[in-house]
Amino acid sequence: MFGTRSINEVKKTIQQVKDNGKISIPFLGVRYIILNKSIQKENDLPFDYGALVLRGEKITDLAVVPGSPADKTDIVENDIILEINNEKITEKNQLSNIIVEYNAGDEVILKIWHKGEDKEVKVKLEERK
User: Fold this and answer.
1) Domain count, the chain
2) Which residues have CB under 8 Å from 31's CB, separation 6+?
3) Residue 16 phi, psi (nearest 5)
4) Is residue 18 in some structural domain?
5) 112: closest CA among 38, 46, 16?
6) Within 10 A of 6 (CB to CB), how many other CB atoms are there?
7) CB neighbours of 55 closer than 8 A, spacing ≥ 6?
């Protein structure tokens, strides 16, 4: 059974192909894990929700893609992206699912926890290459 978000994604994709002849996927440019109470406790983090920006296992698995929208707004490893346009990031409402609701070129406001402080940054999403 499809949820409203899934149906909207399909409609958006069909419209993109009609309008532009291709599918355009918006891109932020971070590698992350979604926080929950267990991860919060294990790592002594201040939040049990959000997307913790984190590098992968390989040296090439950077936390933030160089030149990406996230990089241009100084998001760094260990930042926690808490919200996008006041929409809380959780296990049920993941970062990637929220991002695809937007278009490349859209500006969004991210609420992040950066080096111990809450702050808001404006980010212009780009098209995934």
Assistant:
1) 1
2) 53, 54, 55, 56, 61, 62, 63, 64
3) -60, -45
4) no
5) 46
6) 11
7) 31, 61, 62, 63, 77
Domain assignment of residue 11, yes or no: no
Q: In the chain, which residues have pLDDT < 50?
A: 1-2
CATH code for position 76: 2.30.42.10
Structural domain containing residue 84: 24-127
Q: Cα torsion for 79, 85, 87, 92, to the nearest 10°?
A: -60
Q: What is the pLDDT of residue 12?
A: 52
Beta bridge partners of 121: 110
**Could you give the CA distance from residue 98 to residue 84 in angstroms, rounded to a whole number?**
8
State how far the alpha carbon of 54 is from the alpha carbons of 22, 34, 106, in Å: 31, 10, 24
Task: Evaluate whether residue 36 is within a structural domain.
Answer: yes
Secondary structure (DSSP) of 50-117: SEEE---SSTT--SB-TTSHHHHTT--TT-EEEEETTEE--SSS-HHHHHTTS-TT-EEEEEEEETTE
